[in-house]
UniProtKB/TrEMBL annotation:
This is N-acetyltransferase domain-containing protein. Gene3D superfamilies: 3.40.630.30. Residues 46-182 form the N-acetyltransferase domain. GO terms for molecular function: acyltransferase activity, transferring groups other than amino-acyl groups.
């Protein structure tokens, strides 16, 4: 941690009170003009939405670690937060959703990428890379994006490998702490 955070030795104090680290996370990023644009999967349709559509949430509920209740909460938060620019990208093949990606652009030109998920049967078929390319080319550049960044769980090695192949570099790592259940 930075030497400037307060209170000093917070992690030690929380550990003594029964808190444990969890959700170790890494943030990766890259200037938009350094992202290598590769061939997009031409068999897939890519659709942009200004708001989180129901199909987007259902797909994440089905294939991510988030429950339906968490999806509802995230949807509510997404609708209430005033975000300068956001988009929700859905990858579709034969009228079936096979991937999702969310982009949130702040006023300084930083594009946050989240909710990147590909149907298990369609992984390793250039879907995630194609969604990132579509986001950058069809949305990011026209909205004056300068920098792209995202967060991934530290033990998600497949995602880390994908993003590092695209040239993204580790910016920082962090974690949360939660109280252990009483025994």
């Amino acid at each position: 941690m930075s030497e400037y955070y307060e209170p000093k030795n917070l992690e030690d104090k929380l550990t003594k009170r029964g808190y444990q680290k969890y959700a170790l996370t890494t943030a990766l990023g890259l200037e938009i003009d350094k992202i290598p644009l590769t061939r997009t999967n031409s068999e897939v349709g890519f659709f942009f939405y200004d708001s989180r559509v129901e199909e987007f949430s259902h797909f994440l509920e089905k294939f991510s670690k988030r429950t339906k209740a968490k999806q509802i909460i995230i949807n509510e938060i997404t609708q209430r937060i005033i975000i300068p620019k956001k988009c929700f990208l859905v990858a579709n093949l034969h009228e079936e959703i096979i991937g999702t990606l969310m982009g949130v652009l702040n006023s300084q030109g930083f594009l946050y990428i989240g909710d990147v998920l590909v149907h298990p049967q369609f992984r390793r078929q250039n879907i995630a890379t194609s969604m990132l390319n579509k986001l950058v080319v069809d949305w990011g550049l026209s909205n004056k994006t300068k920098y792209v960044w995202l967060q991934i769980e530290k033990d998600n090695y497949k995602a880390q490998n994908l993003y590092q192949k695209l040239g993204m570099k580790i910016i920082y790592s962090y974690y949360y702490m939660k109280k252990s259940p009483s025994k």
